[in-house]
Write a structure and sequence with these properties.
mainly alpha, 7 helices, flat
Length: about 140
């Protein structure tokens, strides 16, 4: 068996029945991948969709890099969710309700893509809270 076939089989291995928090993480992963693909392939979406200011330097490359990072995060959410590991789900809650809003609100206050980053600074913690609620319900039912 080749290394590539081992990797392919591991990635495509059917997921066992997953708890709702893992399924929700998978859906969030698809949304992050879609948003990442949008910024990667069309950095002008920042102006067209979010009505941000025109680029004055090399921000287009920065938006593409943000898109790539967002797509990779989506990839990890999909496969982390498919693992069914509650540790993965809990870890996503922690960073979504702490790190993401703290960093992005700081950037918004300095005028860096305020509409884009404010939207993410609000939406991502909300998704984290929903995930936390699902995880809590699963744990409460297991007791």
């Amino acid at each position: 068996m080749s290394y590539f076939s081992t990797l392919k089989r591991a990635l495509l291995e059917p997921a066992s029945p997953l708890p709702p928090s893992s399924v929700f993480s998978i859906y969030c992963g698809y949304a992050y991948m879609a948003g990442g693909a949008l910024f990667l392939l069309w950095p002008g979406a920042v102006q067209a969709v979010f009505q941000e200011s025109a680029f004055i330097g090399r921000e287009e490359g920065l938006i593409r890099a943000i898109g790539m990072v967002l797509a990779v995060i989506g990839w990890f959410y999909i496969f982390g969710g498919r693992s069914g590991a509650s540790q993965f789900v809990a870890a996503t809650v922690v960073d979504r309700i702490t790190i993401v809003p703290l960093v992005l609100i700081g950037l918004v206050l300095t005028g860096v893509f305020p509409r884009v980053f404010l939207g993410v600074a609000i939406l991502d913690p909300l998704l984290g809270i929903i995930t936390w609620h699902l995880l809590h319900k699963e744990r409460a039912q297991a007791v």
